Amino acid sequence: MGKNTQKNTVSNQISFWTANNVTPLQAVSYAVFEKNRVKLYLKRDDLIHPLVSGNKWRKLKYNFLEAQQLGYDRILTFGGAYSNHIAATAAAGKHLNISTIGIIRGDELNSQSNDTLVRAAANGMQLIFVSRQDYQNHDQLAQLYGQNCYVLPEGGSNALAARGVAEVITEINAQLTQPPQYLATALGTGGTFAGLVNGTQNTPTRPLGFAVLKNGEYLLPDIQNWAPDFGQHQLFWDAHFGGYGQVSPLLRSFMLDFEAQTGVLIDPIYNAKMLLRLSQLVESGYFKPNDTIVALHTGGLQGRNERLIFR
Fold first, then answer.
1. Would 88 be classed as within a structural domain?
2. 158, 194, 239, 255 — which has fewest CB within 10 A?
3. pLDDT in tens, 251-290
4. DSSP string over the chain
C-alpha cells in the first residue's frame, strides 16, 4: 500500500469511527445518590468499540493519525500486564493495519500470562518483556526497540490524547438539556483528565479527577502541560484504596453492589475506585441536592474476572 493511500485509509476510518461511535449517556439509580438527591449519569465509553474500549480510543485516535502523517508504520508503547492501553493499542493497530510493539513491565511474564496479553498478541502486537527496573527507563527502551517507530507514552497520555478526550464534552452536552455541574473520571496518567479540563473551558462544568495510584501528585506537571488553562479543578489523590491494582474487600463489596443496583459492569482498577470515592463524597454532603454528575465509564473490562473478584 502506498504512503498516501495508507494515510487516506486511516483518515477515513478515523472519521468513520468518530461519526458513528457516539456512546450512550445513561442515567443510573444508585442508593447513595438517590438518598442525597444527586443525579448520576454514566457516559458509556465502555461501549465505544468491543476491543478498543473506553477512553483508550479517544486517546489513541489522533496519535494513530499523527503516526501516519509523519510516515511511521509502527507504533511502540509501554504498559503493565493488565494494561487497558496495551490491549487497546494492539486492537486499534490491527483494525487500522498498523504494526504495534508493547514493552511490558515484568520479565517473568509471557504472552500467555493472562487474557489481556493473549489478546494483545492475537491482535498482532509484538510483546517485549523487561524487568521492572529496566522498565523505568522508557527513553532507553525506545532507543533500543523503537527504531523507526512512533513512540506512544505509557497510558497513551499526551497532548494529542487530551485533544481526543476533549471531544466527549460535545457529545455529553448534546445528550443533556443543560451542561452537568460535574464531570468525573479516574486518573492514571492524567491524559483523560487533561482532556476534560480542556473540553470544559468556558462552561459551567467542573471536572473531578480521582487518582487510582498512591502518591499520584507527580502527575500534576504533566496535566498542567497538556491542559495549559488548568485552574482550580478538583483532584482527589486518595482514591487508590490501597494502591494501583489493589482490590480491597471494601472495593469488591462496592463493585458488586453497584453492579447489582445499576446493571452496569465496572472494572476494579479505575472505574470502581472512582465511583466508590465519588459515592463517599456524595454521602459526606460534598454535592448539593439536584447537582448532576456525569461519570466517564472508561471501559477496561477485559480480563476483569480473572484479575479480580473470582480469583
1. yes
2. 158
3. 999 999 999 999 999 999 999 999 999 999 999 999 999 9
4. --HHHHHHHHHHHHHHHHHH-PPPEEEE--HHHHHTT-EEEEEEGGGS-SSS-THHHHHHHHHHHHHHHTT--EEEEEE-TT-HHHHHHHHHHHHHT-EEEEEEE-TT--TTSSHHHHHHHHTTPEEEEE-HHHHT-HHHHHHHH-TT-EE--GGG-SHHHHHHHHHHHHHHHHHSSS--SEEEEEESSSHHHHHHHHHTTTSS-EEEEEE-STTGGGGHHHHHHH-TT--S-EEETT-STTSTT---HHHHHHHHHHHHHH-----TTTHHHHHHHHHHHHHHT-SPTT-EEEEEE----TTHHHHTTT-
Residues 35 and 65 in one domain: no
Type of residue numbered 109: L
Domain count, the chain: 2
Q: Which domain holds residue 139?
A: 56-156
Q: Which cell goes with 292?
A: 448532576
Kindly report the CATH number assigned to the domain that includes residue 65: 3.40.50.1100
pTM reported for the whole predicted model: 0.90
Highest mean pLDDT among 55-69, 81-95, 127-141: 127-141
Please indicate, yes or no, if residue 11 is contained in any of the structural domains.
no
Q: Are residues 174 and 132 in the same domain?
A: no
